[in-house]
Amino acid sequence: MPLQRLSAAERAAALEELPDWALREDGLAMTRRFTFADFNAAFGFMARVALIAEKLDHHPEWTNVWNRVDITLITHDAGGLSVRDIAMARMIDAL
Question: How close are the terminal C-alpha atoms of the chain, in Å?
């Protein structure tokens, strides 16, 4: 059974638990910017996130510029946020 997109109420409740994440303007994805001391620290963080992504078989959209990593989470198959994105955000925040 495919993953279902979260309702507006479910998205709002999840984001209350994840205060550093924000809904993208269209409400279909969540984003967060991480800032580190330098490129090495940012790249190390990305490597740890990559291990989580492989474990969950759910891969973020992300960009890296020097000490900054921007992550967007969305479940394309569901057409928006799903429980999979919330689980991944929690794991990323635990790093």
Answer: 30
Count of residues making up the chain: 95
CA nearest neighbour of 81 among 11, 9, 19, 12: 11
Of residues 28, 41, 89, 47, the one with CA closest to residue 68: 41
Answer yes or no: are the C-beta atoms of 62 and 29 closer than 8 Å: no
Q: What is the pLDDT of residues 8-54, one digit of tens each?
A: 999 999 999 999 999 999 999 999 999 999 999 999 999 999 999 99
12-42: buried (b, 16+ CB within 10 Å) or exposed (e) per residue? eebbeebeebebeeeebbbbbebebeeeeeb
Report how far residue 4's alpha carbon sits from residue 64's, in angstroms, rounded to the nearest whole number: 29
